[in-house]
Please model this.
Amino acid sequence: MPGAVHDWIPELPVTRKTPLFDLHQKLGARIVDFGGWDMPLQYGSQIAEHHAVRRSAGVFDVSHMCVVDLKGKGVRPFLQGLLANDVGKLKVPGKALYGCMLLETGGVIDDLIVYFMGEGSGFRAVVNAGTRDKDLAWIRRHAAKHGVEVIERTDLAMLAVQGPEARAKTAGLLSPAGGASALALEAFFGREIDGWFVARTGYTGEDGFEIMLPGTEAERVWKALNAAGVASCGLGARDTLRLEAGMNLYGSDMDESTHPYESGLGWTVALEPRERAFIGREALEAVRAHGPQRKLVGLLLEGRGVLRSHQKVLVPDAGEGEITSGTFSPTLERSIALARVPAAAVASVQVDIRGKLHEARIVRPPFVRHGKALVS
Amino acid sequence: MSNVPSDLKYTKSHEWLRTLPDGTLEVGITDHAQHALGDLVFVEVPEPGRKLSAGEAFAVVESVKAASDVYSPVAGEVTASNPALASEPEAINSDAYGKGWLMRLRPAAGAAPALLSAAEYEKLIAEEGG
Model:
């Protein structure tokens, strides 16, 4: 059921603030509570911010995300047991890996990125803000056995600069040598540059950087990016961009009650080498043996309207599913969604929007990549 | 800063009403409401002829963020709905009191809705932190 117009008049929650909070307010941002943090939802038009990232460049404050440095002799075997993806793939310093931390049941505790910082420097993990407490507790519990030090980097701010012009505009803020070094980064690599950690990663489907830097520098850098023509963008645009890019959001598209194979995350599970024991492995092997009962698919609404999370999906001859994330796609100018449906679902489904059934087509995400529509 | 025209009436749930020369009422959502909702991308308006009771949901406005019901401030029969909103829902964002109107209705006999004046509505949104 839709809410009422008056449900959307903002309230004033008491939450944590990033080093950029005052600047967000000065820039006229609408502030919302996200994972216990006061974060900018939008500065002006959310759709304009979305287009800025697809067509030029935008900057997001993602300092609410939790950066954790993991150090110690046993850190590699520790992470190989903790994550469903295999950090054994990370041989070159700076290389990043996306994966999930699982319960013994195979349910997803969180999704995260780990960077290999180099021999002797250990690894850096970035986990979600809303799952910080349980993640740190879980990581520390297992780290103890391996003598791994867990250091939360609350001193760092994190900016995501995304879009086709993002890298060039960011490089302009660095020293000449630093800028060249940043532009030389390959996709999914990071490096210490001029006192920042700059990584060619993101959550929008566009090229760009994620920058971890001292919180004290964040405001100056944000203003410099704005001056260079990089648009301030809020979490609203971040959500429509990631959904167009077919990227999952923890808590919506997967959680502790769902495993990676029914969450579109099978590609992040490394069952080879077979001898690598990781938490959740047995449960996932059992799922593989029988075949997953459900899958996460992309949906494209054929007509007008907007798909939203928790709407019921009817699959001909195969039962029911549910939308896990839905929105209006500013790039495609129609509604898109991720939905968990019975494994047998093919071609098309019907979605119950406020009691009426609407036709939707199953498509393979991403919907949009590097500014181009991949579905029509 | 929300725009609250002094010649209109308002509701606590952020609808506005304009009395037209023929006695019918034009209804939409306020500038304050469209600002809170953000970019509108889809609007469902009622069929002409539909009978509404006071407080009944008659339209759905969907922004990128969420879907919201809009309530009829008064009982009556829908005489027209805004056809332009199907292709141009953003008209509500750009012109909430003009091109963004949602419906016109003929109030039922004896309908005496409790409405707010512009000053009262301004006070309401100030209290809500708008």
Q: What stands out?
A: Chain A touches chain B at residues 2-12, 30, 41-42, 45-47, 236, 240, 304-306, 308, 327-328, 330, 335, 354 (CB under 8 Å). Chain A has two domains: 1-288, 293-373. The CA atoms of residues 298 and 364 of chain A lie 6 Å apart. The radius of gyration of chain A is 21 Å.
